[in-house]
Amino acid sequence: MSVVWQPRDAAEAVRLKEYFGAAGQYVGGGTWLSVQWENGAAKPAHLIDVGGVPGVKGLFVQGAELTIGAMTPLAAARLDPVVGRCAPLLREAARHVAAPSVRNLGTVGGNVASRTGDLLPALLAADAELLWYDGRVQAAEKLADWLERLRGGSRPDASLLLQIKTACGEAEDTKRQLAGGRVLEGYRKIGRRETFTPSVATAAFRAAVTPAGEIRSVRLAAGGGAMLPQRLPAAEALLLGETMRPQLMEQLYDELLAEVRPAGDAFVSAEYRRQTTAAVLAAGLWQAWRESEPA
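Given the sequence above, the corresponding structure tokens read:
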């Protein structure tokens, strides 16, 4: 049985993690860890409960930035009107995480720290930033950079995730700058069941398009199953400066097939995930463009 520790603050939490090393694990809502244990993963000797650490729960807007405490329940990301106004992709992603009872317990930070959570593609498409605390200083890091470090083999240290930050009002600012342009956003989760099983593919996109259809900015992200979610810079570069048209979406599909790096499992092959992700992103972007056209 694991020993549960309840640190008084973030500094104490990090000290405990540094002391116990691999034998200690941070826990918030515990929903993701419970699934791992049910699937046979070993329980750590020590659980460091950070749910009561001051300053890591709740959300607020300051200036043009939305800040979400790592221990904020997933239900808040789904239901809070501030998230709906500032980060609609995140709100939509939260709707697809498990069932309401799980969203009441599970946390935004836990979904991120799992490295495969359904929120990650939406946060990547929003160009989100993570705020870490290593026991001495706080440090900000782009979510995309953190995932790339993990993909490169970087080992996690004792740093504690405090907050997730993303822009607020970016869509309205973009529309004003483009003088009547459109912001295309979408989140898609394809799975064998709606909840409780790893998705076949999870994808998100955000693009700013002029009234004439020229793509001025774009962010594409993909995840699903056990793969580390990723931004897709080659596909983004293909789209930048181009005009929305069916042939471009066909080229995008081919580029995504080359760039997406999924992982297969006992139920879904890597190739099937690759094809599904490419189709979901290309079709979703085109559908969002067509639906945004004036009647």
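The first strand starts at residue 3 and ends at 5. Try to locate this feature in the token string yourself.
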